[in-house]
Amino acid sequence: MGTSALQWCSAVGALMLGAHAMAQQALITPAATQPGAGRFTIREVAQYIRLDDDPTPLNRSGSNIRFTTQIAVGITGSLSLEGDIPFAYRDISGAPGQSFDGFGVPDLAVRAKWRVWKKDFGPLDTGRLSLFGGLKIRSGDSEFSSDSYDPIFGAVYTHITGRHGFNLAAQYRLTTGSNPTPLLAGEGKADLLRGDASYLFRLAPASFADSSHDAWYAVLEFNSEYETNGDLELFLSPGILYEAKTWALEAGVQIPIVHSLDYRPRTVIAARFGLRFLF
Amino acid sequence: MRAHINTSVLVLTATFGLLGCQSGSASSTQSDQASAARQASDAEPISADAEYVVLHVSGLSCPLCATNLEKELHSQPAVSTVNVNLETGEVRVGLDGAFRPSRSDFKRIVVNSGFTLRGIDVPGEGA
Prior knowledge:
heterodimer; A: mainly beta; Porin; 12-stranded antiparallel beta barrel; about 5% helix; globular; B: alpha+beta; Alpha-Beta Plaits; 2 domains; 4-stranded antiparallel sheet; about 50% helix
């Protein structure tokens, strides 16, 4: 089997591994929810990013397609461990020596999420606060890796009342190394601060009947990526989420609304599709 | 005279204070005994005659969340059926066989699944 065919098979395999189920979790913004003790979830996300207008002399443009398998394991009712296993394809053109067309393995990540506060004030209604911390682990792939081990820490608050769900999250990645020619946020020398907010509205059913076991949600997110070198991108991200009893389907786009970049090309548009499964 | 009054006040204050402590101790002891009795009751298996129980749960959030609880309940011996009503938070658990979980068992399951148990209704028993 040729290298290209093998890479495609690996990509498909990664896509088929399954999905990670976090209820009331938007597509990008984390949530203060997690699998119960002894349960695990698998989430598979495919993300497409179109890049252009590189402000550096490298003059890069092109696309990045990333497949991420996220696995979460419930340790107790309030503690879970998570891991991200990515696989990506890039087709980038630019100044001489900057073009790249091929597959690779971006950096992996592991996290612990600890729910430190919870108040359930109705059959459906709840407020929860979780802290999380972890490590981005270098993959060693020179094209896709920042070649460093970067600590990550953050917090997320989730509030669900009736048909409305809100998530508010902040996370900071301390960069200990760098890719000299970053293409995406967090790949360069600067630390990365992410701020995310999401609103989910249950489209159907309006109220759950005794036999209701699924739901449709409209999702709207506000996502920010700020790096300590001054680079900033803000996104508005509409999406849709279908949730059944043991699986969920998600789809959405990221529309950039603010760019202030000096070190990497800007995002023209991004799209996501994902599947989640609870075991 | 003033010293005598001050001493009397001190003695009276100490006396009432000690009485209060004794009263507090008495009520504390009664509270501890009641709590211990409840815990002992909760640890006892549900009546073998009960064919189902209804759990009143908060924080279920969504279908996928509730499945955490549903799967955990199904993994317990004697649980034959589980029906979750997301709107009311009522979880009807069908029971079968000779073994019966206790109220403490149900509470542990609900808490480990990430939710809050408000109460348990067992047909034929007090709540």
